[in-house]
Write a structure and sequence with these properties.
The chain has about 120 residues and is an alpha+beta fold. The strands form four sheets. Strands 1-8-7 form a three-stranded antiparallel β-sheet, with no helix packed on it. The radius of gyration is 31 Å and the shape is elongated.
């Protein structure tokens, strides 16, 4: 009688986790995903010297339909660095890219970032 009880306990202790494992796949779970926080606004870049004239860019055919050319611009990183233009997808139909530019304000130049309109 004791050996029969030991066998039933042994079988029960090995089957119980397997049954629980099988049944756990039958449950549903709702997962809520928060949106990532909005990026901080870009820092205002103010430079005391005028940027060089824009470089001429060779615009090749778009690599795929639906892309819009966003032209290059001068970036101040302790010195002037040219950031080449690129093809970008429009965020919505008929969106138009307003290029970034350096605005002359007083005795300095302030970077106004490009954006979709």
């Amino acid at each position: 009688m004791v050996s029969v009880m030991k066998k039933s306990l042994l079988i029960g202790s090995t089957l119980a986790p397997a049954i629980l494992l099988l049944l756990s796949g039958c449950t549903t779970r709702t997962v809520y995903v928060e949106r990532p926080p909005a990026p901080p606004p870009p820092e205002t870049v103010v430079v005391n010297e005028a940027p060089p004239p824009p470089q001429k860019e060779v615009i090749v055919e778009a690599p795929q339909p639906g892309l819009y050319w966003t032209p290059g611009y001068w970036s101040w990183q302790g010195r002037w660095i040219w950031i080449g233009g690129r093809w970008a997808p429009r965020p919505y139909a008929r969106a138009v890219w307003v290029p970034g530019h350096w605005a002359h304000r007083g005795h300095a130049y302030v970077w106004v970032p490009g954006h979709w309109r």
